[in-house]
Amino acid sequence: MPSPADLSTPLAWALAYADMGWHVLPLEPGQKQPLGRLVPRGMLDASIDSAVIRAWWARVPSAGIGIALAQSGLVAVDVDPRNGGTETFEQLQADHGSLISDVMAYTGGGGEHHVFVIPPGAQVSLPGTLGPGIDLKANGYIVVEPSVHPSGKTYGWEASSSPLDGVAPSPLPDWLRSLRVP
Fold it and tell me: What integer best gives the mean pLDDT of the chain?
């Protein structure tokens, strides 16, 4: 994995994520939406091809970074405390079991992304929400470090759980895998 000194630009971060097999897409600087002129199909255009990634960030060096979850074999539990996510998160864990992953990020909006890996070959069809303030993202994307949120705050990996330090996402909990889209 790259050393912190090597991660001095968004391009370096994007290439590091791609090296892990995580499909990246450029986002509007300081925003959460895909950079449409570079990725007209949004997350469907996400890539791990270093030449493509270099071309994107050569055109917009300050672009944020999104990770396309399905293409990367990932699922994220998005906790939004402003909408009751903290309470819902605690209740879900009390009712079903852990939702804590070894890979966790703080969002620029004050929430958390708990990132899980989908077991190879597993077919999952998950609901979009788990309750107030909790989104379950499987077919979307998440914004990752060092991107800037519209609030001006930066997204960041929790200190002991950065995938760029070799920490792997935990497997998606069985109880989540057994949920069905209503």
Answer: 91
Asked if the model's pLDDT at residue 150 lies above 90, the reply is yes
pLDDT value, residue 2:
52
Give the tens place of pLDDT for each residue, 44-59. 999 999 999 999 999 9
Tokens of 68: 């396309």
Please write down the long-range contacts of 123-131, taking CB distance under 8 Å and 24 or more positions apart: 124/75, 124/172, 124/177, 125/180, 125/181, 126/75, 126/176, 126/179, 126/181, 127/179, 127/180, 127/181, 127/182, 128/181, 130/77, 130/88, 130/92, 131/84, 131/88, 131/91, 131/92
Q: Which residue has the tokens 């050393």?
A: 3
Question: In the chain, pLDDT over 90 holds for what percent of residues?
Answer: 74
- Taking the C-alpha atoms of residue 101 and residue 117, their distance in angstroms, rounded to an integer, is 9
**Coil vs helix vs strand at 130:** strand
pTM for the whole thing?
0.92
Radius of gyration of the chain from its Cα atoms, rounded to whole angstroms: 16
Judge whether 25 and 140 are in contact, CB under 8 Å. Answer: no
- The token duo for 141 is 């994307």
The angle at the Cα of 19, spanning 127 to 69, to the nearest 5 degrees, equals 10
